[in-house]
Design brief:
The protein is of the alpha+beta class and about 300 residues long. It has 11 helices and 10 strands. It has a 5-stranded antiparallel β-sheet with strand order 2-9-4-7-10. Strands 1-3-8 form a 3-stranded mixed β-sheet, with helices on one face.
């Protein structure tokens, strides 16, 4: 009989403190923890957590850690991001030299500009092997933000507290965006290999005689074959090609459609079905968006 995964739900910052035996939190919606002060047995391998808040964790381990088939150097520090209600594991059972974590509930952001912007920080949907690896200098910059957040919620809470904490969280997230951009650049060779593999997969998929049965591919189709999260693949492609995964799929689709429009006498509806569309109007909309002309107008040019 297959062993059932152990998933521990943690819904509030207070519940988090009780679980990690850290005493009462100083603020009900946000907390910073020194991960080295948490009892080691709380990081039991194989345990999964479902936390109802955002988590930003920075850890430095001794040596390399293996995720999947790849090894990663975490000696300087790695950052991992978790969105509310994601199920995550406690990670590899290795010795940690240093670590801190910021936990904040979505209610903290209520009514703020950051609440509306959170979906733009796509790294909250990355996988563990897509962590942000930071230098010591970058770590110090982030620690400064963390200390300001911690200092602010440790004071008497007043009408300025929320705004100042949220401002520093946003500053920290913007630095993380910058550091991820740097990481995409410094890993150019590895990322170029991924782009090449993606382009081959895309070309192979559309080289099929008909897409009626297989349908139009989605982002997950390619990300799973490249062992990446959908968000990371789209961000990587955007940095290196200027187009997201979805845009690449649509461009390849349009090129295939152009060939069929010029080289066959099939109707627009037949071509749409051949390309995996249930509704020809959806095909027409994508084609016109990418070319500026409807399929019928494009065919009349030949």
């Amino acid at each position: 009989m297959e062993k059932k995964e152990k998933i521990i739900p943690i819904k509030t910052i207070s519940a988090l403190h009780r679980y990690y035996q850290c005493g009462s939190p100083k603020h009900p919606l946000v907390s910073v923890m020194d991960l080295q002060t948490i009892p080691h047995d709380q990081f039991e391998p194989g345990v999964f957590y479902k936390m109802s808040f955002y988590v930003i964790a920075c850890k430095r381990f001794k040596g390399e850690i293996t995720y999947g088939r790849s090894k990663y150097d975490f000696e300087e520090g790695s950052m991992m991001f978790t969105a509310p209600d994601q199920v995550v594991s406690s990670g590899p059972a290795v010795e940690m030299e240093e670590g801190w974590a910021l936990f904040f509930h979505p209610d903290l952001l209520s009514g703020t500009e950051l609440e509306r912007k959170m979906s733009s920080y796509s790294f909250f949907r990355y996988e563990a092997n897509e962590a942000l690896h930071i230098s010591e200098e970058e770590n110090l910059i982030l620690k400064d933000c963390i200390e300001k957040i911690k200092r602010e919620y440790s004071l008497n809470i007043d009408k300025h507290t929320q705004g100042l904490i949220v401002s520093n969280i946003e500053l920290l997230l913007n630095y993380c965006n910058r550091f991820y951009d740097r990481q995409f650049i410094t890993r150019a060779k590895a990322n170029n290999d991924i782009v090449s593999r993606f382009e081959r997969l895309l070309a192979d998929y559309f080289s099929q005689g008909s897409l009626i049965e297989s349908g139009l591919p989605d982002v997950k189709y390619f990300s799973s074959r490249l062992h990446l999260s959908p968000n990371y693949l789209s961000d990587l492609l955007s940095k290196h090609t200027g187009k997201t995964t979805q845009e690449h799929i649509h461009l390849q689709l349009v090129e295939k459609a152009k060939s069929l429009l010029w080289e066959t006498s099939k109707s627009i509806s037949e071509i749409a079905y051949d390309l995996g569309f249930e509704h020809p109007s959806h095909f027409t909309k994508i084609f016109k968006t990418k070319t500026g002309k409807s399929p019928k107008e494009y065919r009349s040019l030949s």
